[in-house]
Amino acid sequence: MTVRDRADDLNEATLLENLRQRFEAGHIYTYVGSILIAVNPFKFHPIYNPKYVRLYQNQRIGPILPPHIFAIADNAYYNMLKEKRNQCIVISGESGSGKTESTNFLLHHLTALSQKGAHGSGVEQTILSAGPVLEAFGNAKTAHNNNSSRFGKFIQVNYRENGMVQGAVVQKYLLEKSRIVSQGHYERNYHVFYYLLSGATDAERDALHLLPADKYHYLNAKNLTLENCDEKYEFSRLKQSMEMVGFSAEKQRRLFNVLSAVLLLGNVEFFPKKSTYHHDESVQVRNPDVVGLISELLRVKQETLMSALTSKRVKASGETLIMQYKLPEAIAARDALAKCLYGALFDWIVLQVNHALLNKDQVLHTGHSIGVLDIFGFEDFGPQNSFEQLCINYANEHLQYYFNLHVFKYEQKEYKREGIKWTDIEFLDNYGCLQLFESKPSGLLCILDDLCNFPGATNETLLQKFNSVHKDNAFYEKPQRKENAFIIKHYAGKVKYQVRVAEMREKNLDLMRQDIVSVLKNSSMAFVRELVGADPVAVFRWAILRAFFRGYFAFRSAGIKHRKERADMSYNKLATKTRYRAPNDSIVRKLFCARRPVRDAGMLDRYRNYSTKSATAKGGQRERRKNWP
After folding, report:
1. Which of 16, 197, 261, 284 is most exposed by smallest CB count within 10 Å?
2. 100 included as an active-site residue
3. Is 493 considered catalytic here?
4. Helices and strands in the chain: count of H runs, count of E runs
5. Which residues hold ATP (predicted)?
6. Rounded to the nearest 5 degrees, what angle is found at the Cα of 441, between the Cα atoms of 388 and 386?
7. Is the per-residue pLDDT at 98 higher than 80?
8. Among the listed residues 490, 507, 375, 478, the one whose alpha carbon sits nearest the alpha carbon of residue 437
9. For the whole model, what pTM was predicted?
């Protein structure tokens, strides 16, 4: 039985009771109209093999077959072919509810439907191989989930008119870069760091200067291992997936170089410089050997990188001043460099994946597409709610508003327009919560941006501004006891956000100074220079354009050379057939120079005139041989 069979008394209590009964009976999927509710069983169910792919193929969503995620994918696929319209599948839920696995199952079924027998295009396998690559670099262990996506992605699968996959595009949203430099209790950094440290060979460890995992400050020493996860095997699986997506061995080596440099940046330490001035708070690097290893991996000058980590250049009155960092500023600059490198690396990976998913036959896409949106779920980590949870929950508020708009508002307006007797369903409209975030100039995000640009502002003044502006807002609350926190009434419940612990101002700032960017742009490794380009897409497109023009001019030069050689050969053949024609200049010049050094610049011309006159005379050939110089 599905929930729709009891739609006459559908409410929250009956919905939850129905879900509980079905889950206890071993049914993890339930339909509510055209919506599929999935309850994460945290174990594998054998209902995703090719038998189930064939079972749900070209079947309408209904009571004939049990609810299944394959039915959603199949319904979207055949609706696209029948109605000639683009389709979209939105996956939403709390953190740990199984959104990433649901996305993988959807993509498996969508690509399986496209493969007609043995006539698959190969793009299908590339789409499936891109998943493990993005998960390794964008997923991490959190307090609620061992494989939590720390970024949102939208995958658009393009189809030909005959239903075959033609290509795909991946868009990413809001990578959690702050996780690179710090993690909460019971949390880890991104998976790829642990895969690399566990699976690298001895030769790779020496080349990348890898250390044991507990020696890196950017890795939480309390959570170095993951339960039921063979990270050495996952590293080999990652390399295999990267190869299938199009990452050559050289690209993988350069990529791992950057990963090792990011980890080593966390080990760079600073200490106050000895000075005779009491007010001098400048710092210097305690372990320059670590900076030397980073310089070797990134192919930059050690002295330049050392200077960029401890000082900055400021222009004033037309002059450039060098100002030494204080200890907090040096640490912030170091962490900003690590976050910038990893963020740029992730953008480059998405770019390479999209390049591999491009239409290989270069035919203009004339069919339709199916989009799958997999975005991070609503999060409430209790006392650890930070700036990241604020952004994630804001994104989920937008998703919930979209859901309300299309499922309730638009549908009920359509019923009224058609004159259907209908009693409006009451639902929680979260438009006011969105306005709390994004209204101008008093929204939370606007105030945060303003105070980030205001000198002397702190996290405490930020909280005071929030409280004074929004004290009467229905979606905003102050905690009952005095603490550096505020509460927002989200559609999924109240969430308390910490201000001082969250370091909202610091995390909202972009502390990547131009000095450090300049150091990376002067790297002798082209890969690093591409990473820190102003726009990775622009850099990639320029590389394609540059390669095109190089190829064009190479072919053009080769064509000119080939035509010239053919003309010379034709001229030489014609000269040998014509008995009394003057010899070819180039051949004569070579022969003449080989027989006798040229002492006079006009000697060759005099010989040419003389030989021509001799050839026209009676017995010219004999005379020409006789009078050879």
Report:
1. 16
2. yes
3. no
4. 24, 15
5. 93-100
6. 15
7. yes
8. 490
9. 0.78
User: What single-letter DSSP state applies at residue 1?
Assistant: -
377 noted as active-site residue: yes
What is the rounded distance in angstroms from the CA atom of residue 621 to the CA atom of residue 629?
14
Q: Which fold has domain 398-502?
A: Methane Monooxygenase Hydroxylase; Chain G, domain 1 (1.20.58)
438 is catalytic: no
Over the stretch 422-477, which tens digit does the pLDDT of each residue have?
A: 677 777 789 999 999 999 989 999 999 998 888 788 888 999 999 999 999 999 99
Confidence of residue 555 (pLDDT cuts 50, 70, 90): confident
Share of the chain above pLDDT 70, in %: 82
Q: Which amino acid is at 439?
A: S
Q: Phi/psi class of residue 98: alpha, beta or left (left: φ > 0; alpha: ψ in -120 to 50)? A: left
> Could you give the maximum distance between any two Cα atoms of the chain, in Å?
125
Per the residue annotation, which of 111, 126, 129, 148 is the catalytic one?
Answer: 148
Which one is catalytic: 95, 103, 158, 430? 95
Query: Is 457:360 a contact under the CB 8 Å cutoff?
Result: no
Residue 310 is a catalytic residue: no
How confident is the model over 14-23, as pLDDT tens digits? 888 999 999 9
Between CA 267 and CA 272 the distance in angstroms is 17
Which one of the listed residues 2, 100, 178, 430 is annotated catalytic? 100
**Does the annotation count 260 as an active-site position?**
no
What are the pLDDT digits (tens) for 111-164?
888 765 444 457 888 888 899 999 999 999 988 888 888 998 999 999 988 888
Q: Residue 618, SS3?
A: coil
